[in-house]
Structures are given as structure tokens and as C-alpha cells.
Amino acid sequence: MVTLSTGSVILVNVAKFLTRRAFSTSRIVEAQQMTVRDALNTGLDEEMERDERVFLLGEEVAMYDGAYKISRGLWKKYGDKRVIDTPITEMGFAGIAVGAAMAGLRPVCEFMTFNFSMQAIDQVINSAAKTFYMSAGKVNVPIVFRGPNGAAAGVAAQHSQCFGAWYSHCPGLKVVSPYTAEDHKGLIKAAIRDPDPVVVLENEILYGVAFPVSDEAMSKDFLVPIGKAKIERPGSHITLVAHSRAVELSLDAAKELAGEGIECEVINLRSIRPLDEETIVKSVIKTNHLITVEQGWPQCGIGSEVCARIMESEAFYHLDAPVIRVTGVDAPMPYTKSLELAALPQPHDIVRAVKRVLNVK
Amino acid sequence: MFSTCFRFICKRVKQHSLPSVSCSNSYATEATFETKPFRLHRLECGPSNTVSVTREDALDLYNKMHMIRRLETAAGNLYKEKLIRGFCHLYSGQEACAVGMKAAMRPQDSIISAYRVHGWTYLMGVEPVGVIAELTGRQSGCVRGKGGSMHMYAKNFYGGNGIVGAQVPLGVGVAFAAKYSGTDGVCLALYGDGAANQGQIFEVYNIAKLWDIPCIFVCENNGYGMGTSAERGSASTAFYTRGDYIPGIWVDGMDILAVREATQFAINHCISGKGPLVMETMTYRYSGHSMSDPGTSYRTREEVQDVRQTRDPITSFKEKILTAGLVTADELKKLENDIRVTIDEAVKKAKTDNEIGLDELPCDVYSAPLEPTVRGITPWNNLEHKRLGPAVNLH
């Protein structure tokens, strides 16, 4: 049992002040930092420089520098041909992007938020995802759909939905949900180079968050493989599986629990299709306990899929307790601040769930 | 002798003004005809009403139209024999549209349409057996039987799309890519009178005009969106004007030379940097919307018969080129026989060929699969994800 001494408290607070984030297993030579926003911006820039066929389209991506400033500076650098402002017509411009990909270009189609992708979802699923299969392997669609996904802050019900479950349901799509700055840079680059349609689910709250970044990640050829999860924090008592912002919440909970002697293994999924089942199974075999954490709704969510996979795998025989899903509340997002907080899982919810699963007070 | 022929020709020709012919030996080598007037929207001048066709082209155009008619008839029969399943939308009656448009297309041009595309698949380079065997779902189908009637593809032909209207933004995207890459190609994005009210079409009218995309929007108006006549579905049936700020042309879609002329005009318009154009081809389908629609609950048999007898695109073209002396009846008969043989053989193959093996069910879900298997019916029989197809956009 570890008790927090004053010295450790100071150290922890200093670390918090400096990096704000928990441990990463990447090699960090210098403590260079990068925000998620800059990581995406750099990734987009590098891929546009590398391949002339890559272009970015979406609302406000050019002259406005991006609604969330992800594409800042790109229009200035590449001009009208490669960074294109669209009218507010998602179905139209997403369809155009898919057609352009069918004809050999490499479009990056931004949805200002994934909530608006619903207007275009037919093009994403029926035109992009299925065409390679329907054409018996002739016409592949090398497109990237990207934008902020899930809950933000105070934007209410129509602007807060998580689309991880909807998109990861469909064969033909690859779906990624990065967390760290390195994840974002590596995955956006991998997505652009991937010859199949990739959905990149970002998060508005994460855009401004700075992460330590390794030297390796600064390279123009740094890629994060799609379909591979990462163990953000090794542990032995219980496995926490999360994606996107829920990884942060899980790491915060893990930190608190470590103070009470409970070591959580936190898995950052990074991709939800393909889902890195192997990493999760291996971890559960080690820890015998599993909690999934997500901000999206419970029914048919990412946690549900992870649970089902565990049931169907050998990991089931290593479970000492049922798998529990920690999710957003099954209701549209309220605007009221205190209600919004209560509608989304917080670190203390995860802490409580861990203790309950481990049968600890 | 020639003047006797001429008098004979004059008596026979009712609908068309006197063809003028240029002759060599006992054939004419080129003939000129007058089309119905084109209707123009926001255009100072349009395609010429005076159209000509060479002997060579006449044979080729006739051959292609007749092939499509035979192909579709065979498809209809196979469907009734239950050898084609699901959806089957026949193009019979609309042949002049596809063949006329294709005749004006250049190698760098592309086309995309909805689901009434068996004829287009053939025109874009797939042998009749590749079309018919695809309909019966066999391995010699152009997409190995995995697509079926609505999902056929060929070079510069982007399907074959099942969702009404979705093909139009895709077509604008293809045209966008042509402009981006500097290929000088245009894309013809086809849709019907039923699809013409789709919001996404208006969304891409806007973008195509804003960005000067070389896309020709083609509304094949066959008078009916499934069982709903154009008048019952559209507040404005002047589909060639629906692009509003985009210029438009109305064409008699039963006159192949008019369609060819108008498409030529449209292509020139686009490649000269004038941006998109809308072309409405007024045509007619003899069958119902699909094979599950007899096509008589919302229109009279008399109406269908009337069109067959007075406006059929193939017989009216046949009459034209025969009376102009461009071709002989014997030549056409030989063509028709050859076509019949081709189709008969294709049908035979389509009936007897095998389906692809079960190992191809999980094949080509991804062009760059990241997992070796595809989840099967149960977790105990995962399937191997194979890669078979050529994936044209890999590198």
C-alpha cells in the first residue's frame, strides 16, 4: 500500500504543471510539446507536400483557417487548388470528395463536426465504404473523412453525438480515434496514405491539449499504424480500455487509484476499426478485470463491442468479474452545465467502477 | 434510276425533311437530317438542328442500339425464368440516349449513372457476356457476380449506383478530378426525372457552377419516376432549366443524332471553360420501372404501343439510314443476326457458368486489409480476407 507523502505530492503537482498529461511509453529525448491541433496541422501539411493529389475541402477550411484552426496556414501555403472552402452542403461536397477519390485523387473531407456528417452519411457508407467490394476489387476509394466527434462543452444535444459506433459498424471503412498528439499526427498521415476510406474521429476538447512528442514523431515519415492500440499505462490489477478523450479520463482515474495501490492498465485504442482485440485480450489475461470507458451512448457502443469480443475470446476464461461499460448517460446531451457534467463519465465514475469491479471499498 | 429512288424516298419520308445525301458507287457515304428543335436555357445558341452521319457511323450506331435492345430483352426473359434476382431495370426504348452520348464522348471522358445501366456497361467496354453473366451472378460477370444489375463498373464508368441521386455528386467529383489533374476530360452525370428533385443534385449544381467543374448533368426524362409521372412528382418538369443559373438544353432523346449533336455541344461547352451544363433527354421506357413493375398501372398500354410504333429510336433510325441509302436492308439483317448470335451465346454462358467460390465472400472488403480475417457467422469460423481485384487507385 502506497501512501502519498508530501514530497510525492509536490513532485506530482510539478509534473502536472509541466506536462498536464500522464505517462506515455514513447521515447522522449527532449520534453518537446505539441498540441493536438498542431500535430494535425503538421500531419496535413506534410502529406499535402508529399503527394500532389492530396487536397482538403470543407466548410471554412481555407480562408478562415479552419473552424477550429486545424488547417491554419494551409490555404496560404497551397492556394485555392488544394485547400477548398465549400458551401454548407455536406451531402454534396462529401459526394464530390468520394467521386474525386474514385477518380484517383486523395481528398481529405472535413466535417465541421461529425454531427453534420449525418447529412452525408449515405455517401460515406454507400458510396465510399462499399464500392471496392461491389466492384469486385476494382475501384478503391482513398478518401479521409475527418473532424471533431463526440461531446464538446455546452454545445447541447445536436452537436454532441459520438459517431464511433455508427462508423465502426460498417465493413469497408477504417475508423480511428486518436488521443495523444503523436496519435493524431501519425494517424492522420497513415489515413491519408491509406488506399481505403478512413474516418478520423477527433475531439474538440483535445485540440488545445499539449502532449510531449518524441523525436521520432517529428519526422515527415512518422506513421502510427491503423488498427493497433497502445498501452498508455501498464498495470496489473485491472484493464481500462478507452478511445479519444476517455483515455484522458481513464489516465486521471488510474493516477488516483495508484495512490490507493490499485494499478490500472490503460489501453488507448487509437483505432476502433480494426479493433486491436489482441492487445485487449492479452491485457485481460494479465489483469483478469476489464472496464471499458467511452463518452458515447451505451447501447451498441464501443464498449459493447469490446465486451462481445472478450466473451468470444479466451480472455473470458481469465475474467474474475463481469466486464463493465462506463459510458455517457443514455440521453441526449443537456445544455445545463451541471447536467452536462453528470451526463458524461468523470474520473471519479471510473474510480468507483474500478473499486466495485475489484470489490474494494 | 437514282431519281426513281429519290421519288420513292420522298413518298416514304413523313417525319423528316428530305435527307440530302452524298453518294459514291451505289451507297451514300453520308446523309444529313433535320432534328426537332432543341430548347435552350440561358444559351445564346445551341447545337445545330442539321445533323449528319457517315455510313460507318450509321452502322456502328445502329449496331450498338440494337445490341442493347437485344441484351435488355434477354435480361427480361432471364428474370422471368428467375435466373436474375433482385432488381433489374431495363433500358429498352432509351437506347438513343446512351448510344448517342457515347458517340460524342472522347477517351478521356467519364460517365456515371444510376441503376438502368446494362447498356452503358456494354458501351463502356464490357462484352455482352460480361453484362448478362453479371446479371445472373456468375464468375464471368464484369464484377464476378458480386455487384449484380446495379453495380457494374468499367474504365471511366463509375457505375451502376443504387441510391437515387447519389451518383450525381460522385459524377461532379469525377469531373473535379479531371479538372484537377488536367486531363481535359468531362464527366456525364446521369439521373432520371424522379431523381431530378434530389437536394444533393441542387447542392452540386451550386458547387459545379461556383468552381467551373466540367460536368454535364444529364436528366434522362423517361416520363416516370417508378410509378409517378413527371407531372405528379415535379412542380417544374422543365428539367433542363432546373439548374437555374446553369445553362441547359432540351433534346429529343429518341433521335440518336440529336443526342449525339447535343452531347458534342455540351462537351465543347465544358472544355472551353464555360463550366457545367444541364442536358435533358426526353425519352421513354417500354418496360416498367423494374422487372417487378408491369408498367401498366400508371399508364395505358396504348401509350406504350404508340411510342413503340411512332417514336422507337431504333426503328426510326433504321428507316432514316435505309431511305437515305446509307445502308442496305441486307447489311442490317446481317448485323442483327450477328447480334442475336452474340446475345444467345452470352445467355448460354450466363446460365451455365459457375458462381464464384465461397472463399470470395470475404474478398476485397479492403484494398489494403489490416487484418488477415473477416469475422464470420460465428467467432469459430473467421474467413480469410483475400485480395483479388486490381484496385485502380492503390498508388
Share of helix among residues of chain B?
25-40%
Task: Label the CATH architecture of the largest domain in chain A.
Answer: 3-Layer(aba) Sandwich
CATH superfamily of the largest domain in chain A: Thiamin diphosphate (ThDP)-binding fold, Pyr/PP domains
Mean model confidence by pLDDT of chain B: 94
**Greatest contact pair?**
A-B, 50 and 55 residues
Provide the β-strand percentage band of chain B: 5-15%
Number of helices of chain B: 12
| CATH topology value of the largest domain in chain A | Rossmann fold
Distance between the termini of chain A: 14 Å
Tell me what the CATH architecture of the largest domain in chain B is. Answer: 3-Layer(aba) Sandwich
N-to-C CA distance of chain B: 64 Å
Describe the largest sheet of chain A.
Answer: 7 strands, mixed
Domain Transketolase-like pyrimidine-binding (chain A): 34-209
Main location (chain A): mitochondrion
GO molecular function (chain A): metal ion binding; pyruvate dehydrogenase (acetyl-transferring) activity
Pfam families (chain A): Transket_pyr, Transketolase_C
In words, what does this structure look like?
The complex is a heterodimer of chains A (361) and B (395). Chain A has 2 domains: 33-218, 3-Layer(aba) Sandwich (Rossmann fold); 230-358, Rossmann fold (3-Layer(aba) Sandwich). Chain A is α/β, with parallel strands linked by helices. In chain A, strands 3-2-4-5-7-6-12 form a 7-stranded mixed beta sheet, with helices on both faces. In chain A, strands 9-11-10-13-14 form a 5-stranded mixed beta sheet, sandwiched between helices. Chain A has a two-stranded antiparallel sheet with strand order 1-8. In chain A, helix 2 runs parallel beside helix 7 and helix 8 crosses helix 12 (347-357). Chain A is built from 12 helices and 14 strands. Residues 19-25 of chain A have low confidence and may be disordered. In chain A, helix 3 (74-78) links the parallel strand 2 and strand 3 (83-85). Chain B is α/β, with parallel strands linked by helices. Chain B contains 12 helices and 13 strands. Chain B has helices at 2-12, 55-80, 95-104, 118-123, 128-135, 167-181, 199-210, 230-233, 256-274, 301-311, 313-323, 329-352, and strands at 20-24, 27-34, 39-41, 50-54, 110-112, 187-192, 215-221, 224-225, 228-229, 248-252, 277-282, 373-374, 383-384. In chain B, the strands form 4 sheets. In chain B, strands 3-10-11-7-6-5 form a 6-stranded mixed beta sheet, with helices on both faces. A 3-stranded antiparallel beta sheet of chain B has the order 1-2-4. In chain B, strands 8-9 form a two-stranded antiparallel sheet. The longest helix of chain B has 26 residues, at 55-80. The radius of gyration of chain B is 22 Å and the shape is globular. Mean pLDDT of chain B is 94; it is low at 2-17. At the A-B interface, helix 4 and helix 5 of A face helix 6 and helix 7 of B. Chain A: GO terms for molecular function: metal ion binding; pyruvate dehydrogenase (acetyl-transferring) activity. Chain A: The pyruvate dehydrogenase complex catalyzes the overall conversion of pyruvate to acetyl-CoA and CO2. Chain A: This is Pyruvate dehydrogenase E1 component subunit beta. Chain A: Its cofactor is thiamine diphosphate.
